[in-house]
Amino acid sequence: MKLKLLFIICVLFLYSCSSQNNLELKSTASTQELNQAVAGIGSGNIAPDFVVVSTEGKPIRLSDYRGQKPVIVYFMATWCQYCREDYLHLSNVYKDYQDKVVFISISLDLSESIKELMDYKKNYPELQKTFFAPGQGQILRDYSITKTTTKYAVGKNGTIIYRGLGVFSEEQWKMFLDSVSG
Predict the structure, then answer these.
(1) Cα angle vertex 52, ends 48, 55, to 5°?
(2) In a 3-state reduction of DSSP, which class is residue 124?
(3) Mean of the per-residue pLDDT values of the chain
(4) Are 97 and 56 found together in one domain?
């Protein structure tokens, strides 16, 4: 009898703990629905702001494009073969989007200099209206960057509308840029 009573008390205790957790989850979800301007790196979050200096010596602030144009933030390295492939495919379509989308390439290799990035950018004359910039540790941490070819699309309102990685074909770049710029 005592064993049954102890069992029932344990079950009730566990039930009350799980009910409380559900309440916490519900209240957190409600708070997030009410406050949609949450900073973070997931879709729907406000993209973490940053300032980089481009290979042209121009300071580029992500938030300066809010309300103007969508922005693609692409994390790369000059030694990355997959980035080369991605840029080759992008080069074939970017001219149709260069006035609709801002494209910022940021090196995740913190040892790469502006000079190295300038020389690298020369390999892609069709991408001259894009920005290339050396990376910064804080940006890499803010965006949880560990791999090249990581892409973020930030909408005109400053929220992240896409996060992914990997090489895009020419057709995938078209579809991606259409959806971001449309």
Answers:
(1) 145
(2) coil
(3) 85
(4) yes
Q: Which of 6-15, 26-35, 36-45, 154-163 has the lowest mean pLDDT?
A: 26-35
Amino acid identity of residue 44, one-letter, is G
Q: How many Cβ atoms from other residues are within 10 Å of residue 70's Cβ?
A: 23
Q: Quick: pLDDT tens for 75-85.
A: 999 999 999 99
**Which of 152, 106, 156, 160 is CA-nearest to residue 133?**
106
Q: Is 62 helix (H, G, I), strand (E, B) or coil?
A: helix
Predicted local distance difference test score (pLDDT) of residue 19: 40
Give the 3-state secondary structure of residue 64: helix
Residue from 48, 71, 43 nearest 138 by CA: 48
Phi, then psi, of 118 in degrees rounded to 5: -60, -45
The pLDDT of 163-178, averaged and rounded, is: 96
Query: Alpha helix locations (H) across the chain?
Result: 2-34, 81-91, 114-121, 137-142, 170-181
> Is the domain of 14 the same as that of 87?
no
SS3 67: coil
**53 bridge partner residues:** 59
Asked if residue 40 is part of any domain, the answer here is: no
Confidence grade of residue 1 (pLDDT, cut at 50, 70, 90): low
Range of the domain at 9: 1-35
How many domains are there within the chain? 2
Note whether 4 and 91 are same-domain residues: no
